[in-house]
Every structure is written in C-alpha cells, then in structure tokens.
Amino acid sequence: MSRSGFRCFSCRSRDALAALPLVESLVGQLGTRATLVTIDGGDHGFHVPKRSGRTDAAVLATMLDALTGWMAITVRPTGDA
C-alpha cells in the first residue's frame, strides 16, 4: 500500500471537540494531500438530531461510503506484502 502521507478527515458540524472552521483550516493548509468529509448536523460521535430525518446507521453508512471512495482513489497497492 502507498504510504504517501494523504489524509482523510471527517468533521461534524455540531462537534464541540473539533470545530469545523479549525478542521477546514487544517485541511486547507495540507492542500491536495487532505480530504474533508463533513457530516451535517453530526456531533463528535456522529449522532444527528432525530429531526434531521437520518438515523445514526445512515450517517455511518455515508461516512463509510466516503472513506471507501477516498481509499479507492488514494491508496494504491505497491506489491509490498
């Protein structure tokens, strides 16, 4: 697998421990080596309010889809075992 220093960050818009503007700034500083996936309405544990109409399982599925998509284009086998 490639160990090229690429990073995938997730941030939740209601995360009290990782404010979205700070994470956006960090990702911006890393440039093309970083990708940010934002979960609208999510808190630090990826929980969303019931009024959002989404379940925790749906939010996690969205996050996993984003992560697997990121891995598919970023992490490439190198032949190393």
Can you walk me through this structure?
With 81 residues, this protein is α+β, with helices and mostly antiparallel strands. It contains 2 helices and 2 strands, in the order E-H-E-H. It has helices at 20-30, 56-74, and strands at 7-12, 34-39. It has a two-stranded parallel ribbon. The mean pLDDT is 83.
Key descriptive features of the protein:
about 80 residues; alpha+beta
Summarize the model shown.
The chain has helices at 20-30, 56-74, and strands spanning 7-12, 34-39. It is α+β, with helices and mostly antiparallel strands.
Q: What series of H and E elements makes up the topology?
A: EHEH
Q: What is the strand content?
A: 5-15%
The largest sheet has its strands arranged as 1-2
What is the strand tally?
2
* Termini separation: 9 Å
Overall shape: it is flat
Q: Give the class from helix and strand content and strand pairing.
A: alpha+beta
Task: Note poorly predicted spans.
Answer: none
Rounded to the nearest angstrom, the radius of gyration is 14 Å
Give the rounded overall mean pLDDT: 83
Helix content: 25-40%
Major sheet? 2 strands, parallel
Q: How many helices?
A: 2
